[in-house]
Design brief:
The complex is a heterodimer of chains A (217) and B (197).
Chain A lengths: L1 H24 L18 E2 L2 E10 L17 E13 L5 E12 L11 E14 L7 E11 L7 E9 L9 E10 L3 E5 L13 E11 L3
Antiparallel strand pairs in A: 1-5, 2-3, 2-10, 3-4, 4-5, 5-6, 6-7, 7-8, 8-9, 8-10
Chain B lengths: L1 H18 L3 E12 L3 E8 L5 E12 L3 E13 L6 E8 L2 E3 L4 E3 L1 E9 L2 E3 L4 E3 L1 E3 L2 E3 L6 E5 L3 E11 L2 E15 L2 E17 L1
Antiparallel strand pairs in B: 1-2, 1-16, 3-4, 4-5, 4-6, 5-8, 6-7, 7-11, 8-9, 8-10, 11-12, 13-14, 14-15, 15-16
């Protein structure tokens, strides 16, 4: 009987844990749960690589469905990164070069009378994520950017980038977080932490365009 | 023997062709071409070494023909043999063409090409009104006549060699001269083109 009680206790604990975790995972993407490892983009390799192309994301919610056009709830971007495959003394996987042009068309993100427009000024790191469901390749990369609306500079950012085959719409993914507050907006990110949302959290699903992974540069 | 010859030719040509695949991408917000006017702005073309190009214009006015806000043009891609890719997009906010004959609250033209696949996914029109009539989600290459002006093609999608061109609003200006309709100009709002050849 005591064994059964113990088993029941363990089972109950497991169930409570699973339910709590699933509720946590189903939360609409805002800030990442602190201390919880991602299901994806947790294991990396420092290898030469390139990711190119651009696209559209309809966030929120960041799924494969486009929001009603009149809502203007969408983002568009062009992004290019070349990873060197070399790590510095701190183990940071260095990028050779890259570019990011990001526009957030949401009315609530307008700044100085224009859509929020972010422009990367330097790409400092790029590493291959080896634990995603992205069939062609996934890259975690980032650097520093400028807010074109105001000229605010040297904001650190990171990207979760995913090529999940062709066509890109409905399959590829892209997510971005700016670590430093944007004047007039605050902390900014377009990320999708729902593990049920393809292709790999925290990247959001593309609703247009394409991400193209290149295993060399 | 003829079949063998063709196979040999193909084997000789194909590797070179594949290695030399080159991407092209171009986008622009507004283009107006008439007898007296030839303007295209903002526009972005994929750089020769790949990467990303973007230009923008906050407020656009082209003669008395077009006004637009928040126009962005973006082109991206890279040459990499069979993994070459090309992407372009043009996005605009409020648009008015021919003194309000055609209006929209948002225009997105998007074209991407890679691995033999090209598509216009991501393209959209918000609150499009043509001659006072709301037009929702027009099918590709929807043509509407504009009495006394010409006609407009909405969500125009044109297959090109290795890719496609998307023109979200393409107005063809016409005049009847001596009983014959002649094209006198054209206006394009929201254009994106991509190809990999």
């Amino acid at each position: 009987m005591s064994r059964l009680k113990a088993l029941a206790g363990v089972t109950a604990t497991a169930v409570i844990t699973l339910v709590g975790w699933s509720c946590d995972a189903n939360r609409t993407a805002v800030a990442p749960p602190i201390g919880r490892p991602l299901l994806h983009y947790d294991v990396f390799a420092c290898v030469p690589l390139k990711m190119t192309g651009g696209g559209r994301i309809d966030y929120p919610p960041g799924s494969a469905e486009k929001n009603p056009p009149a809502s203007h709830e969408f983002e568009t971007f062009g992004a290019h990164v070349m990873g060197s495959g070399q790590a510095d003394a701190n183990g940071t996987c260095l990028a050779d070069k890259g570019a990011l042009e990001w526009v957030d068309h949401r009315p609530e993100m307008r700044l100085n009378g224009s859509p929020l427009n972010l422009h990367a000024t330097s790409i400092t790191f790029a590493e291959l994520a080896t634990d995603t469901d992205c069939s062609e390749g996934a890259v975690h990369w980032g650097g520093r950017l400028r807010v074109q609306n105001t000229g605010q500079e040297e904001l650190q950012f990171e990207v979760w980038d995913c090529d999940n085959g062709e066509p890109g719409a409905g399959h590829d993914g892209f997510g971005i977080r700016v670590w430093d507050p944007i004047d007039g907006i605050g902390l900014y990110e377009v990320t999708c932490f729902d593990p049920d949302l393809p292709p790999a959290e925290p990247s959001c699903t593309l609703t247009g365009g394409n991400r193209q992974f290149h295993p060399t540069h | 023997m003829k079949t063998l010859n063709w196979i040999l030719v193909l084997l000789w040509v194909l590797p070179g062709w594949l290695a030399g695949q080159s991407p092209n991408a171009e986008a622009f917000g507004v283009s107006v071409r008439t007898v007296t006017l030839n303007q295209k702005t903002p526009s972005a073309v994929l750089p020769a070494d790949g990467s990303v190009a973007q230009t923008q214009a906050s407020d656009l006015t082209v003669a008395t023909l077009v006004t637009a806000q928040d126009a962005f043009a973006t082109a991206a891609g890279a040459a990499d043999g069979t993994q070459s890719d090309a992407f372009s997009s043009a996005t605009l906010g409020t648009v008015s063409i021919l003194n309000g004959l055609i209006t929209a609250d948002g225009v997105v033209a998007m074209a991407s090409s890679a691995s033999g696949n090209s598509n216009a996914e991501g393209s959209s029109l918000a609150n499009l009104v043509v001659n006072g009539i709301q037009v929702s989600d027009p099918a590709p290459n929807t043509r509407l006549n504009l009495a006394g002006v010409g006609y407009v093609v909405l969500n125009e999608q044109i297959a090109t060699s290795g890719g496609m061109t998307v023109n979200m609003i393409h107005v063809v200006l016409q005049q009847t001269v001596l009983g014959i309709k002649r094209t006198t100009g054209e206006i394009v709002v929201g254009s994106a083109a991509s190809s990999v050849n």
